[in-house]
Specification:
The chain contains seven helices and seven strands, in the order βαβαβααβαβαββα. It has a single domain, classed as 3-Layer(aba) Sandwich (Rossmann fold), CATH 3.40.50.170.
Length: 201
């Protein structure tokens, strides 16, 4: 079987992207990243991709807003761009933009996202912060990370892999973030490997 083709969408630092790049370079992952796309020009993940000799594209939403275009128009054009790379899998790795049906429906069972919470908990943004505050207010003792297929409902798609993380009552928010991000890096690679292995069988 040919190596799986990945397109990775990012908005920021790109540490999860780096985890995938490192896993490919160390042969833990039988895949190629054929393109990295960002909706933010300043995203450091673009530099990570360029350092790894990966093709990059910056696709801002601003021009669509300035020309009174709909979000559907942006999502549709973005989907066309992603499709042009003929990906086997599209990975949202810190992509801070809610995608609508005109994008999602083009990649059924081929679009995955990493979310720093367990299934059914803290959908949307600031998930780590919300879990940490819940640990202080309501004694929440655990949170987690999941990688899931993307559907129209935010962070509600079928989980591919999950991992529980204990919240230490004495740890700071920054300490919890570091702990969660370290799990994210490992779990994203595990999820991609799981998908590859399922394709093989």
């Amino acid at each position: 079987m040919a190596r799986i083709r990945l397109v990775v969408l990012i908005s920021g630092n790109g540490s999860n992207l780096q985890a995938v790049i490192d896993a490919i370079e160390s042969r833990q992952l039988d895949a190629d990243i054929v393109s990295v796309i960002s909706n933010r020009k300043s995203a450091y993940g673009l530099t990570r991709a360029e350092n790894a000799k990966i093709q990059t594209t910056y696709v801002p939403l601003g021009p669509y807003r300035r020309h009174d275009c709909t979000r559907d128009a942006y999502d549709s054009d973005l989907a066309d761009l992603v499709k042009s790379f003929d990906p086997d899998l599209v990975v949202l790795a810190g992509w801070m933009h809610i995608l609508g049906p005109s994008f999602i429906n083009r990649f059924t069972r081929k679009l995955i996202n990493i979310h720093p919470a367990l299934p059914g908990y803290f959908p949307g943004i600031n998930s780590i912060e919300r879990a940490w505050y819940e640990s202080k207010i309501n004694k929440l003792s655990k949170t987690g990370v999941m990688v899931h297929y993307v559907v129209d409902e935010i962070d509600a798609g079928e989980p591919i892999v999950t991992e529980e993380i204990t919240i230490d009552p004495n740890e700071t928010l920054e300490e919890l973030k570091i702990k969660i991000h370290n799990v994210e890096h490992r779990l994203l690679v595990s999820a991609i490997n799981k998908i590859i292995n399922e394709e093989l069988t």
